[in-house]
Amino acid sequence: MDWKREAIDMLKNYPAQRMSLATLPGELERLELERSALRSSLGEGEHVTGGGGEVGDKLLSNIVKRDEIKKNLELAQRRVRMVEKGLSVLDEEERRILELMFIHRGKGNVERLCEELNIENPPGVYKRKDRALRKFTLAMYG
Questions:
Q1: What is the chain's alpha carbon radius of gyration, rounded to the nearest angstrom?
Q2: Number of helices followed by number of strands (H, E) in the chain
Q3: Which of 46, 61, 65, 137 is within CB 3.0–4.6 Å of 42 for a Cys-Cys bond?
Q4: What pLDDT, on the 0 to 100 scale, is given for residue 1?
Q5: Residue 77, class by beta-carbon neighbours within 10 Å (0-12 exposed, 13-18 middle, 19+ buried)?
Q6: For the residues of 2-48, what is the DSSP string, one character each?
Q7: Cα 118 from Cα 120, distance rounded (Å)
Q8: Which pLDDT value is given to residue 117?
Q9: How many CB atoms lie within 10 A of CB 79?
Q10: pLDDT value for 55
Q11: CB of 107 within 8 A of CB of 100?
Q12: What's residue 57's pLDDT?
């Protein structure tokens, strides 16, 4: 396995993973409300057995969706914690480099880092990026 590639992917996906921590609970809440509405539309004493009509099918689908959302939320929480722990071993400069090179990528970030960190040329930034990424990868995967 290419741990360096894995670490880069974790950094690139970090903003989206953090965003999902804000959106997934709302989706779970929406599905819970939908479940309540579906259950109330089932007839008194009616049970869902896996083919008992449209409402029963929707209720089963809702259960599957809620389980999937819960798993996605747990996975996102784990990934965010993992990246944050990996970033915590870096010094301020190393974090800034990885932030601009992977997390918040953008045109001109290498030149920006040259200015911010008082580095003469882009190869110096890339050299420091490689060191920071190695340190981050070791913290994440050993």
A1: 23
A2: 5, 0
A3: 46
A4: 85
A5: middle
A6: -HHHHHHHHHHHHHHHHHHHHHHHHHHHHHHHHHHHHHHHSPTT---
A7: 6
A8: 93
A9: 18
A10: 74
A11: no
A12: 83
Query: By 3-state DSSP, what share of the chain in percent is helix, strand and coil, each rounded to 5?
Result: 80, 0, 20
**pLDDT reported for residue 35:** 84
Residue 17 near residue 80, CB atoms below 8 Å: yes
**What is the C-alpha to C-alpha distance for residues 18 and 75, in angstroms, rounded to an integer?**
11
Determine the Cα–Cα distance for residues 67 and 95; give it in Å rounded to an integer.
35
Which tokens is 33 given?
């409300």
* pLDDT at residue 38 greater than cutoff 80: no
Which residue, 6, 25, 24, is CA-closest to 83? Answer: 6
Question: Is residue 45 left, alpha or beta, with left meaning phi > 0 and alpha meaning psi from -120 to 50?
Answer: left
Non-local (6+) Cβ contacts of 64 within 8 A are none
What pLDDT sits at residue 114? 94
Place of tokens 């990026």: 129
